[in-house]
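Exercise 3.2. Students should predict the tertiary structure of the chain below and write it as structure tokens, then compare their answer with the key that follows.

Predict this chain's 3D structure.
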Amino acid sequence: MKTKSNNPTAMLVLWDIDGTLMTTSGAGSAAFLEAGRELFGERFRLDGVDQLGRLDSVIWRDAAKVSRVEDPDESEIKFRAVYLNCYKYRLVSEPAACVLFPGVVDLIDRLEKQDHVIQGLLTGNYPEIGRMKLEIAGFDLRLFPVRAWGSDARTRPDLVPVALSRLREFNGTVLDSKQVLIIGDTPRDVNCARENGCRSLGVATGKFSRQALEEAGADIAVDDLADVEAILDWIIH
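Answer key:
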């Protein structure tokens, strides 16, 4: 276990998953819709429901509203179980749907070797969905001991305090938000960092361009993470 308590150079790097670490080629939206229709019939729909960079729990509430699902809080429990099964089936039966982006594995490995860096997840995914995707993609979840999931807060910015609390629980480290870096592919990731006083690295491997991420206020934005050496140098300095 890495111990970073009382280290002024300590850093927490929080990764988004979809569009940042990997793509599942639309399998998530398809599985979400499939699960909803399995439970609620053809009236379940995602028309007009914004999904990019949002929390699964928020997407669920919006979808439940437009689909006239009664008792959405109670129904969400059943929905999550079916959603996981639908999503997992798609990724297992179509392995090519799950693709890691350039530089991701090398950068995570290089950061893991930095004594003052701890890596974690800050993602809109339900925990069971995020863990499933990472395991199918071949990641050792121990690389990300600090995890803030999409069901842990009502908004994405509220996940940063969750992550900092879990860091304290993990090894006793207390960090200021200025010692946190959020890596993501949407303006919502950038805004999450900005609202909490964190640094942000925007990666244009999702649906948004580098220019859009820069305009959203990213401290730095790149097309992808392929230039591992340069990006690592920016992160740790």
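Discussion points: The longest strand covers residues 117-122. The longest helix spans residues 72-93.
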